[in-house]
Amino acid sequence: MASAAFAVSSPAASAVAARSKARPAYSPPPQLLPILPPGLNISCVTAWWFVDARRCLGEEGARGGRDAAWGSRGRLANYAKNFGRVMMALAVDVSRFEGVPMAPPDPILGVSEAFKADTNDLKLNLGVGAYRTEELQPYVLNVVKKAEKLMLERGENKEYLPIEGLAAFNKATAELLFGADNPVIKQGLVATLQALSGTGSLRLAAAFIQRYFPEAKVIISSPTWGNHKNIFNDARVPWSEYRYYDPKTVGLDFEGMIADIEAAPEGSFVLLHGCAHNPTGIDPTPEQWEKIADVIQEKKHMPFFDVAYQGFASGSLDEDAFSVRLFVKRGMEVFVAQSYSKNLGLYAERIGAINVVCSAPEVADRVKSQLKRLARPMYSNPPIHGAKIVANVVGDPTMFGEWKQEMEQMAGRIKNVRQKLYDSLSAKDKSGKDWSFILRQIGMFSYTGLNKTQSDNMTDKWHVYMTKDGRISLAGLSLAKCDYLADAIIDSFHNVN
Ligand SMILES: Cc1ncc(COP(=O)(O)O)c(C=O)c1O
């Protein structure tokens, strides 16, 4: 009841009261409640509370007895604590957000903030997965500039898109993913919804799982992209991990992965990275993908692909879609989230899609209708600019060719840097350590195997900013900086535990 009294005066105070649940709450006399009008000055309530608390404790203490004594002592402590909190809030001019704690910085995006604050000339940002030129500058693809120029010349409008997004984009994105000739496209088996890039697409799918598969759990690789857990947590979808990374080989723990997928409750959603696994850069081989598909099929699990790097891993859109197409070819129902942040460099345009391959066209229609129903109250309809860029680039054979070339160049620059880093490490490290795992990894990241303390040393001593799991983004590295980075890694690996 004390909290009820506070609720009329300040949510801050009710948050304070809510946090004091450990001890039985103090109950003000019911006759006082009606005289506490909404918006009552908090200091009046506090003063009343303090006087009334003393009165109550006095009465209780006077009653005597062991139980009453313990109760009084606990309540006294509780009062003192809460009173201190409320007085503190008053001293700093009460905010209604007193009960809102500071959130920790994002483990990936927070790295960029720390990088910006560092004034050392040698600093290197290998935290966020964003492509940089050899001069370490952000890159807007020429084909994107060309598409944007065309859009301006045509005087295209900014009207709302339908909930499902731009039809031309949805067609283009599904065809890129599955291949234009894929029977699932020809037979209308795919429900495609334009969504807010990879993250938004995953989040929409998570909301769908929560609504229509409330008993199911999602299993995700250990480790995985940091935001996966947040997405499923916020959507209230239970998840657990399957083994993926083997620290001994800095490679794939294939047996562990298969065993854990097999052991998951039948009908689980298995989150798979379509290509260029983030953070490890370790992908299954084509033969291993077949075995993964076998187990998923046997256990009646639902494959759920996250494709954030199509074309960016190998330089080929088709090669990077191999895993998804393999599952689809087996006639399986599949979820696929797509992103154009990396392969078209459209990070801030928030353009991507959620695709659900279904067993029949009418199932796809129903699934799509429900995805739209989920999207409408979340963000109403998606943004148009990125969708038009993708649709224009893919829809024009010349621009499509130019995009593929630029993608190959980006993927090629990352491969060169990967090779040079390996060469520098092998030449400089006289310990005989085998660094060849770096060459076996794929995509924009390398999982160095450095632990948190060693990663801290990379930042504190060498001004190399990276995530604390030992991941570095090679897309943020230049050939010129490879030697410096190799020195930092060797020092951190051999001299820090
Ligand atoms: C594995 C993975 N999935 C999804 C995303 C989502 O990215 P975005 O929301 O920018 O498309 C990323 C981005 O780094 C990623 O690495």
From TrEMBL:
Complex formation: Homodimer.
Organism: Paspalum notatum var. saurae
PANTHER family: ASPARTATE AMINOTRANSFERASE, ASPARTATE AMINOTRANSFERASE, CYTOPLASMIC
GO BP, sorted A to Z: amino acid metabolic process
Other known facts: In eukaryotes there are cytoplasmic, mitochondrial and chloroplastic isozymes.
Entry keyword set: Aminotransferase, Pyridoxal phosphate, Transferase
Name under which the protein is recorded: Aspartate aminotransferase
Enzyme class: transferase
Keyword Lipoprotein found: no
EC number(s) from the headed UniProt entry: 2.6.1.1
